[in-house]
């Protein structure tokens, strides 16, 4: 089985040139490291009301700079969604600066995050998918229906690397098609972590590097799932017969 490596280098000030990052900003308070994610990304999208957050919150995260200058510098490439949450003045501001606006108000069956991920997949058509990583800022905290909708996007695009990020933690999907090596950045993440079966029970999951490792263990909702686990070293391995969510806390400053 092929090996898939994971590393949260996007939270470090300087990063290796690969993978190619795309950033999606959702309609939630911006995580404190949003400017860093923005810098690392080669394509920046706002999901509908996410544009209000860039407009309102980026200047707050950079209080020593002039708000107008910050707004001009943090210009999204694309704003996409059903456009029922973005404020008119924000839409006009970015449209005048050349941001591409994609109104998909006709589609009321997929979320704005789904619409943005579909756009990025088209944009990256000629890229090797294993070299693309989509960072989603503001995916957690707040409305539970939105949080679950965001997790469902991980499942609907299970062959694409997508990482949901909040101020407190990150979540990604470990597809059952691969065995996984997770390289921990000890200065920025851990030690609390979880491995959660999603969509269906896992008949057998095996891990190394955790305080409570699994050894061909069954996991299911209503039975055992691995929450409040702890990373012991800098490398975790995971193999499972079903897709799992991996989550780890992000350290406070
Ligand atoms: N409280 C939240 N928690 C997590 N994600 C959120 C939250 N609010 C919004 N989002 C994410 O940001 C995206 C854009 O948000 P926006 O408020 O524009 O959506 P929306 O479609 O207008 O939502 P709704 O009509 O259900 O209020 C959503 O698709 C969702 O992925
Ligand atoms: C069964 C079912 N439940 C909810 C919605 C509503 N909905 C889901 S995604 C979306 C767009 C949000 O920007 C909306 C309104 C639906 N269509 N079908």
Strand and helix map with partners:
Blueprint: E1 3-7, E2 20-25, H1 34-40, E3 43-47, H2 50-61, H3 67-73, E4 78-81, H4 88-96, E5 100-103, H5 112-123, E6 132-137, H6 144-156, E7 161-165, E8 169-174, E9 179-183, E10 189-197, E11 202-208, E12 217-219, E13 226-230, E14 235-240, E15 244-250
Parallel strand pairs: 1-9, 2-3, 2-6, 3-4, 4-5, 6-7
Antiparallel strand pairs: 7-8, 8-15, 9-14, 10-13, 10-15, 11-12, 11-14
Helix pairs in contact: 2-3
The structure holds adenosine-5'-triphosphate (ATP) and ligand VIB.
Ligand VIB binds at residues 82, 108-112.
Structure description:
By secondary structure, the chain is of the alpha/beta class. It has 2 domains: 17-167, Thiamin pyrophosphokinase, catalytic domain (Rossmann fold, 3-Layer(aba) Sandwich), CATH 3.40.50; 169-253, Jelly Rolls, CATH 2.60.120.320. Helices cover 24% and strands 33% of the residues. The protein is built from 6 helices and 15 strands. Strands 5-4-3-2-6-7-8-15-10-13 form a 10-stranded mixed beta sheet, with helices on both faces. The N and C termini lie far apart (38 Å). The protein binds adenosine-5'-triphosphate and the ligand Cc1ncc(C[n+]2csc(CCO)c2C)c(N)n1. The ligand Cc1ncc(C[n+]2csc(CCO)c2C)c(N)n1 is lined by residues 82, 108-112.
């Amino acid at each position: 089985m092929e090996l898939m490596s994971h590393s949260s280098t996007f939270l470090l000030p300087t990063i290796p040139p690969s993978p190619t990052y795309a950033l999606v900003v959702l309609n939630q308070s911006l995580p404190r490291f949003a400017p860093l994610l923005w810098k690392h990304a080669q394509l920046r999208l706002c999901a509908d009301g996410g544009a209000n957050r860039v407009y309102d919150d980026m200047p707050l995260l950079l209080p020593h700079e002039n708000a107008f200058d910050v707004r001009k510098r943090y210009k999204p490439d694309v704003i996409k969604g059903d456009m029922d949450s973005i404020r008119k003045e924000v839409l006009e501001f970015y449209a005048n600066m050349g941001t591409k606006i994609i109104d998909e108000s006709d589609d009321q069956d997929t979320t704005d995050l789904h619409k943005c991920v579909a756009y990025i997949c088209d944009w990256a058509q000629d890229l090797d998918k294993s070299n693309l990583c989509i960072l989603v800022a503001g995916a957690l905290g707040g409305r539970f229906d939105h949080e679950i909708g965001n997790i469902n996007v991980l499942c609907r695009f299970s062959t694409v690397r997508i990482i949901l990020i909040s101020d407190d933690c990150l979540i990604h999907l470990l597809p059952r098609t691969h065995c996984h090596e997770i390289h921990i950045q000890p200065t920025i993440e851990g030690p609390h972590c979880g491995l959660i079966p999603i969509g269906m029970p896992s008949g057998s999951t095996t891990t190394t590097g955790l305080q409570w490792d699994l050894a061909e263990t069954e996991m299911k909702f209503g039975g055992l799932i691995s929450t409040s686990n702890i990373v012991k070293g800098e490398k975790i391995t995971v193999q499972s017969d079903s897709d799992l969510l991996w989550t780890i806390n992000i350290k406070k400053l």
